[in-house]
Amino acid sequence: MRIKSLCAIFVYFLLYSLSIPLNAYAQVAPEFEGIPLLSINEFGVFRVPTEITSEEQATRKVLITKKDNKFYWTSRENRELNKIEAANFITYLALDGSGYIRIGNEEWKSKMRMKYPKYNFDYMEHMVIGLGSLSYFGITLK
């Protein structure tokens, strides 16, 4: 009888330990990824637009992920985001007020490409830094 109890406990422990990783490491899915082409640094009366080189793009790309029906600004300290879909845009707003990412839908993108063919921007990433801000304008990778 004691061996059956020990076997039952062992089987229970084994099944329980196998279920922990499945629950503890919920699936993280990429929601949006983009690379910036232009940055605009603003503070008061100063506004400095800068084209971003291909070498810099990899270190400045934006990544939003989804885990357990929550969104995260993975490329910016994993800040939690609120997703808002309205009109021609999807906006991911940081819950701590540090910034947002705004992505145009396909209709908006096609209108902008016709109107401004030189500027092929799909999204804007805006970060508040003190009393200033830094904005990236770029194209969607995913």
Observed structural traits:
single chain; 142 residues; alpha+beta; eight-stranded antiparallel barrel; 3 helices; 9 strands; globular
Number of strands: 9
The radius of gyration is 22 Å
**CA-CA gap between termini:** 58 Å
Major sheet: 8 strands, antiparallel, barrel
Give unreliable regions as ranges: 6-24
Helical element count?
A: 3
> How many structurally independent domains?
1
What percentage of amino acids are in beta strands? over 45%
Question: Could you provide a short overview of the structure?
Answer:
The protein has 142 residues and is an alpha+beta fold.
Walkthrough of the structure:
It is a single chain. This protein has 142 residues and is α+β, with helices and mostly antiparallel strands. The chain has one domain. It has helices spanning 2-24, 54-60, 106-115; strands at 28-43, 46-51, 62-67, 70-73, 79-86, 89-94, 99-104, 123-129, 132-140. The chain is globular. Mean pLDDT is 84; it is low at 6-24.
Outline the secondary-structure elements:
Elements: H1 2-24, E1 28-43, E2 46-51, H2 54-60, E3 62-67, E4 70-73, E5 79-86, E6 89-94, E7 99-104, H3 106-115, E8 123-129, E9 132-140
Antiparallel strand pairs: 1-2, 1-3, 1-9, 3-4, 4-5, 5-6, 6-7, 7-8, 8-9
